[in-house]
Amino acid sequence: MEARRKKEMDSEEKPQEARFSLFPDEVLERILSFVNSRNDRSAVSLVCKDWYTAERWSRTHIFIGNCYSVSPEIVARRFPNIRSFTIKGKPRFSDFNLVPPNWGADIHPWLVAFASAYPFLEELRLKRMSVSDESLDFLARSFPGFKALSLVTCDGFSTKGLGSIASGCRNLTELDIQESVIDDLGGSWLNRFPESFTSLEVLNFANLNSEVNFDALERLVARCKSLKVLKVNRNVTLEQLRRLLVRAPQLIELGTGSFSQDQALPADAQLETAFGNCKNLNTLSGFWVVSSLYLPVLYPACANLSFLNLSYAPLQSTELAMLLPHCPLLRRLWVRI
């Protein structure tokens, strides 16, 4: 009791800042590792010097809302253990062609800085950044444990750069390309995935225009047993989609290709069965070209849908009225206006 009383008296005599540091730094860092909110972590770093230091060493993800607000060198000095970055570049009005060409927001200087400071980098999510094929090749060569790449409304790269990612990132779990301006040189980039590659969980190439090498895509989907999200482009036919669903009934999110045929599909019952076997499917999108004749094949998959994205589907209200009664759990519906 005397020792405990003395400790309490000593703590009262210490400055207010020191009272927050009565347990080991390792414990504090472990606790802070469970704090995910950016705002909460920023608030924690302002408590005292010890908490500032603990937050500095325990942070593994950084969100940068403006790539010009801070330099990569400053980030590297401040946070030594970052494994995941989210970086935004050009302002939002660039989506409406209100930013001149070569405006900036180049990711390459960031990658060069990351290569020396964070060779263990695992995840990079970019929005409205300029990304070259050379940058993607550098990324694939510089970070051996790299796992996830998301490029949203980015520009400056081609499918050649995607091939570098496919061949060089042996632990890749996510490749997500959304609404980006891509120099589409063909679908052969899918061939670059090694035959031993099996780790992919998310694959989205919906906004690519060229035909893909379907045999390579089918083999990739069959190998990756943990694949949960698959979004293909409009060149994938209904029959090809059926074959993919047979290979990956574990999908949670699916983006379809063209949902119509020039001729009647003789195996539409098989496609309906393939959709019915996707018991975990909760998000459905795509439908770049859609014919209402083929909507009934979706009915077995509609039972568990919570999100249905028909933004690109030229459906009439009467056609929607036939589909929606089969979606009792639907929470979000995006339609074309």
Automatic annotation (TrEMBL):
Annotated GO CC locations: SCF ubiquitin ligase complex
SUPFAM superfamilies in alphabetical order: F-box domain, RNI-like
Domain F-box: 23-64
TM regions (residue ranges): none
Top-level taxon in the UniProt lineage: Eukaryota
UniProt keyword annotations, A-Z: Auxin signaling pathway
GO aspect biological process, one term: SCF-dependent proteasomal ubiquitin-dependent protein catabolic process
SMART domains reported for this sequence: FBOX (SM00256)
UniProt protein name: F-box domain-containing protein
